[in-house]
Design brief:
Jelly Rolls; Arc Repressor Mutant, subunit A; 6-stranded antiparallel beta sheet; 22% strand; globular; DNA-binding transcription factor activity; sequence-specific DNA binding; Homeodomain-like_sf; transcription; HTH_AraC
Length: 295
Amino acid sequence: MELSTAVSEHDGISLACRLTPVVAGPRPVREIQPGFRLFVYLRGWQRFEIDGQRFDVSAEGGPVALALSLTRPAQLVQVAWSEDRMGKLTITAPRDWASALDLKGAGHGDALATFLTGHGNSHLWRLDDDSIRLAQLAAEPPAWVPREALPLYRRARAFDLICLTLSTLALRRDKNTLPRPAQSLLGERIRIFLLDHLNEPLTIDAVAQAVGASVSVVQRCFKELYGMTVFDFVRRRRLDAARDALDNRGVSIACAAFIAGYSAPSSFATAFKKAYGVPPKLRRRQAMPFLEAAE
């Protein structure tokens, strides 16, 4: 399935998905409105300028994202782009959207407020698997989603991506660059090992031994690259697996808790609500009509 451009607008948030060949040719200068923008590149590359600031974004080494804050209208100039298929999502939010966020209550509210209120502030980073999965679902929803529910489904995935982006911005490093190659390679080795052994008991010593690095190097490298500790990552991925089981298979809460590695469903429910904002029982209830319609 290929989409040319699909747009869904609700509460000021819009999502545009472009998964078709980019036709070469002159691109005129155009004005873009102030607000928050998130560009997700699943494949391809693009060079452009906004108010004279140059951006070179490439997904050749893996999907990347660019967050951008504009506080006034800006001039966008397209410079160059990949001639093969472009896989790109653009999520936009109006300028006053940030004012509705409760940044004071967040642990990194000052960092987020500084980013969202500065004109031309930007951050480029390599996407983790969870963000890639959400972007792919936004671009090409599962076949079981009814056609009339597609805008709502894409909107939900857009908000999920915004939430992950805010976490990334809150924990971003001072240098607005992608990880150094050696550091990125070690981080990827750690991540792959964790994913391959997600359903097994894990210790930090075992992880360090498997990737051939010291415990301190593993902990520091992973936190700098992914903005979370090794075991925060493991907990989140196990919760993601439980969420997918609730969404796509309608499993019981007890079964979802087991998938996430929790022996007590009540502890699982607390962790799930903290991670996704809704209790697992409600998530399962929301998914059931779609699952029944697909049968």
